[in-house]
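Take a record:
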Amino acid sequence: MNSPPAGILLLLVDGLGLGDPDAGRNPLAVARTRWFQCFRNRIPAIDGCVVVSTDASLGVPGLPQSATGQTALLTGLNAPLLAGRHIQGFCTPTLTALLAEQSLFRTFSRRGARVACANAFPTSVLQRHRFPSVTTVAMRAAGIRLRNLDDLAGGRALHHDFTNTLLNLRGSSMPIFSPEEAAECLAEITATHDLTYYEYIQTDLAGHAQNMDRAVALLEGLDRFISRLVARLDLSRHFLVLASDHGNVEDLATASHTWNRIPTMIWGHGKERLARRIHALTDITPALLTLWNSHSQGSTTDTRGPVRPETRDPELSSRVPSLSSGG
């Protein structure tokens, strides 16, 4: 029997799409990066990484949004189709029902895996009962402890701005991390868990602000962060998967989200097989579960798998599991 991979690190980079290589509107065409020179019609070969152009619209009219996009990412279900629309911002009762039974975190936990959310949340977020985020709902439903600013101060968590600059501007007294120092912290968390999740939202905020200088600086810092993670993780035993929920920062000509496809970036031994399974946002959780099963059960299942019909056509909604049945 094969042993499971030492760990899967899933990074959500909010609002990162594949746009045009236009330096006047796309900071990815300006930023000096190793990993993010990827565009709508040109995804170059990147040594050690596979990049998959991924559908975030899921066949549902309207601009993709964070709440439904993240729910689709974390459950493998077509959340905007089930909800009847793309939902921005916070978790609704419909999305909560999906996450309660079908999240990646809950499934891994049920199978005995060690799961961590590496984000540190301020007390105001942890005590908030209205307008919860998708991440906090999914983690609580899976019984995963949410980390706080004490964990951050102790090197056991990262803020969604991994440098801590924003926290300090708001009155906290946290150490300022370089991207490399933040990556070291995340690598340490990953080393003791089977599945680690970290959410980075600064790219989405920069896209809404339409600030080119800010977006370029963030992307260059994120690139350094990823480079240190890649160097720090044993990629013969770890998988690093970077995903997004919708486009935004790749087109600063608009303050809104975009219809652009998003990049799914994969590092690790066997990354090509994992990549072949991913076509849409809803394919990422099933692909990671297949990966885990193939290692933990010695499975020889073809990791390409069938394309999930509900990621393609809203008229096929009858083939999506119903909420009443736990789907």
Summary: The longest strand covers residues 7-13. Residues 212-232 form the longest helix (21 residues). Residues 27 and 212 are 6 Å apart (CA to CA).
